[in-house]
Amino acid sequence: MFVLNRKTHLSKYWFLYGIFLSILLAFIYPELGSKEGPLKPESTVKFLGTMIIFLLNGCSIRSEELYQTILQYRIHLSIQIFSFLICPILFLILSTVYRLSTYQYQLSIGIKALGTLPSPVSTAAFVVRAIGGNEAIAMLNSTIGSLLGTLLTPTLLYIMLGGSFTSSSQSFIHVLLSLSSTILIPIGIGQFLRIYFPFVVNRTLPYSNTINNWILLMNIYTTFCQTFKQRGSINLTLTSFLILLITIFSIQMFLIGLLFFVCQKIHIRPSDTIAIIFCGSQKSLTTGMPILQTIFPDNSSITIPLLIYHPMQIILGNYLTPIFQRWLKDAKYEWHHKIRGRV
Question: Minimal CA–CA distance to 189: which of 47, 289, 51, 290?
């Protein structure tokens, strides 16, 4: 029984362990995955790998379901407004406090950037499904957010950084064109393959999450290789790092609590509340990494807050799952009781 449970545990959390192992390997030998290293991550992992991820994402998007959710446009619009308007403001305030308390300017930009990212494609939907919430809302909002994020994230960052991408030679137009070639075009090709070659797509989709996760692990590894190689320029102390961990944990808990409170106040359906909480509070590593690497190609430290946020949201999601399952069971009973009372 113990062996079976251990295998189940590893199969469920292998990606999380892979993140920590990738960071450890990058710390031991950063030269292998740095820009000048033999892996050539700029052209392999960060360009070709990103295109493969979004090609598979394009293959998995059910465009017919996007049209069916038009009746729930208020929920979708509310989540996107929260992700791309409320979150950037909150994270901007948070990044200012962090910079003033630690003098870590680059990491404070990373916190700002984190607030402009959309919700993840798979992580939020996985937690919502495990709890018993409205998975359709989670899936579709993540898809819409990923598409919107390609344009809105660079735009918001451009505004928040004062009309220029600080510490980057990239112009705003160059960033948008680059993101179009690595994100939007592969998604479009994926949709084309889904429509005209459904047999091939259906045979490939069961392996898409595994392929995406392995590419993300390679991306994390090469990012930290470059980070550890230039750690002298980052000058990150243990105190600053611990403050960053506490900061990211605090903002995640605050977002979850805020969304739960608002949904309760305006009487959102319990299953929809679960989807709103996790779509609104989580941030996409899949979409965020290529966007930040395109905007800041010579400053890998800006991705560190995102690389901390992602595993932390997985851990928090798994910890909160049984708590929200119990709440959802009671809330559904009360919701149906209220409806019967009105009838």
Answer: 51
Exposure string over 128-138, b if 16+ CB within 10 A, otherwise e = bebbbbbbbbb
The span from the first CA to the last CA of the chain, in angstroms, equals 50
Residues in CB range of 10: below 8 A, 6 or more apart: 17
pTM of the model: 0.86
Length of the chain: 343
Encode 232-246: b = buried (16+ Cβ within 10 Å), e = exposed. eebebeeebeebbee
Residues 125-162 have pLDDT tens digits of 889 989 999 888 888 888 888 889 988 999 999 898 87
The H or E element containing residue 147 is helix 135-160
Distance from C-alpha of 135 to C-alpha of 149, rounded to nearest angstrom: 21
Residues 6+ apart with CB under 8 A from 228: 26, 27, 30
